[in-house]
Amino acid sequence: MSNSGSIVVWTDSPGQTRELAARLGQRLKPGDFVALIGPLGSGKTCFVQGLATGLRVEGNVTSPTFIIMRYHPGQPALCHADAYRIGGADELEDIGISDFLDSAVVAVEWAERVRELWPAEVITVQIDQTNDARVITISGRGKRWQQIRAELEQ
Question: Is 0.85 topped by the overall pTM?
């Protein structure tokens, strides 16, 4: 469902969350930046696992909280970063996230902590949790988001 350029979906299980994310992942290409925002335990890593399925990434996708960034080969590749334990955007820059901005889909958990890294075109995934469901709001800015939104709404 669309609301002011956003898509809002309620999911009842991790499986539904992954399915939604896989639909998004199938439409992503190198250079797309996905900013994931939500409280601890809301399902950000679960969402990235679904993105990975849509991107046909091989192997397990787990939280990069302690190592900060993981690279997963796929069609296209996925660069999965977590900004929870870092001091700022320059730390992600120091470990080379910019090297992947054109060659992979970049998904950053806790992305609100590194807003200065967000490119002009960004897809934002806000995950909020209720007692027994997740409310996932996907929005963005730029031509890529408009194209992806139109495809997802079909």
Answer: yes
